Description:
Blueprint: H1 13-16, H2 19-34, H3 52-56, H4 58-69, H5 76-102, H6 106-113, H7 118-140
Amino acid sequence: MSHDAADARRPVAGLSLPPRTAVASVLGYLALGAAGLPVFAGSASALLGPTGGYLLGFLPGVYLIARLAGGNEASLSRQLLAAAAAATLILCVGVVWRATWLGHGIGFSVASGLVPFVIKELCSAVGVRPGALCTRRLAEKPASRQ
């Protein structure tokens, strides 16, 4: 699995944007990759290979994080819970896709496509909040006049 495929930081848009806008941003990201632009680790074929489920899992993941986080005024614990839930959802979609694609069964896919990444992804999910706060603050900062 490529580093990019299960990167739970992609749905950070869900902490910064409303659900529909967050999903649209991920759709744009996936469309750019599908069109051949180098946004995925590897190539556009990543969407159709064994790691495609992780990439497609960003869609429900970003929606979930945006809904659970509940907007800009959400508490730290609510945002962390939302980020962890989204990371879990992305990994689960990816594992099921991987099992189907490779035909090795769910046990093999859990062992090769989930277990090695759980701690890293949950730590990434916790780490997305500072990035979301910085993005939000930059977006809210009025342009300086000269």
